[in-house]
Design a protein that fits this description.
heterodimer; A: 114 residues; 6-stranded mixed sheet; 5-stranded antiparallel sheet; 0% helix; B: 113 residues; mainly beta; 4-stranded antiparallel sheet
C-alpha cells in the first residue's frame, strides 16, 4: 500500500463546475496535509494546508480533513480553465526529524474544459 | 521577499560523471529539503538540511549527498551518474518548524546521456 494515494485521473470537469480531488494516507501519525498545484514544466505551488479535522476555505478552494478515515480532499469551486494542472497531495508525519519531509501522492491531472 | 532560487536550471551530463546543484532558500528560512521528480516515481524526498545539519534522509543511494552552508544555501551532489538519475530536482525552503509549509524553487532539470 502506498503511503499517500490520490484518486486516479485524469479528471475532466466543465468550466464553472466543482472539481473534487481526493487523497488517502496510511500513517496515522500524519499531522500536516498540503495541496500543491503543478503546471506542466513548472515546480509545485502551494495552494492549501490543513492540520485539523474539518474544512478550511480559501477563496474558491476548500480543503477537508478526516483523520479518523485518513482522508483529505480538495474542492475547487467555479473551476476555470486556468485550474487545469496536476494536483499533488502531500503529507507530513509528526515528530521531530520529520519536519522537513513531505510524502507526496502520485498526483491527479485536472482538466477544466470551456 | 525573493523566492527560492536554484542553479543551474538545466544540465546535461554523461553516465559516470558527477554533478552539483545549488539552492538558495527564502531569506530567513533555515530548512532546505531536496526532492527528485520523475514521471514514473513522482516526487520523492531525498534529504533535508536544517542549520547546516542533515536532519532527515530518504531512501536514496549514497551517491546522493548534500550539505548546507551557514547562510542556509544548500548544495546536493550526485556522483557516478546513471541514466535513471535523469529527473527534475527540486528544493523546498521552510523555516523548519513543525507547522511550517514548504515553498519550492523552479527546479533543475538533469539529463544523463
Amino acid at each position: 500500500q502506498k503511503e499517500v494515494e490520490q484518486n486516479s485521473g485524469p479528471l475532466s470537469v466543465p468550466e464553472g463546475a466543482i472539481a473534487s480531488l481526493n487523497c488517502t494516507y496510511s500513517d496515522r501519525g500524519s499531522q500536516s496535509f498540503f495541496w500543491y498545484r503543478q503546471y506542466s514544466g513548472k515546480s509545485p505551488e502551494l495552494i492549501m494546508f490543513i492540520y485539523s479535522n474539518g474544512d478550511k476555505e480559501d477563496g474558491r478552494f476548500t480543503a477537508q480533513l478526516n483523520k479518523a478515515s485518513q482522508y483529505v480532499s480538495l474542492l475547487i469551486r467555479d473551476s476555470q480553465p486556468s485550474d487545469s494542472a496536476t494536483y499533488l497531495c502531500a503529507v507530513r508525519v509528526g515528530g521531530g526529524t520529520s519536519y522537513g519531509k513531505l510524502t507526496f501522492g502520485q498526483g491527479t491531472i485536472l482538466t477544466v474544459h470551456p | 521577499k525573493a523566492g527560492v532560487t536554484q542553479t543551474p536550471r538545466y544540465l546535461i551530463k554523461t553516465r559516470g560523471q558527477q554533478v552539483t546543484l545549488s539552492c538558495s532558500p527564502i531569506s530567513g528560512h533555515r530548512s532546505v529539503s531536496w526532492y527528485q521528480q520523475t514521471p514514473g516515481q513522482g516526487l520523492q524526498f531525498l534529504f533535508e538540511y536544517f542549520s547546516e545539519t542533515q536532519r532527515n534522509k530518504g531512501n536514496f543511494p549514497g551517491r546522493f549527498s548534500g550539505r548546507q552552508f551557514s547562510n542556509s544555501r544548500s548544495e546536493m551532489n550526485v556522483s557516478t551518474l546513471e541514466l535513471g538519475d535523469s529527473a527534475l530536482y527540486l528544493c523546498a525552503s521552510s523555516s523548519g518548524q513543525p507547522t511550517d509549509t514548504q515553498y519550492f524553487g523552479p527546479g533543475t532539470r538533469l539529463t544523463v546521456l
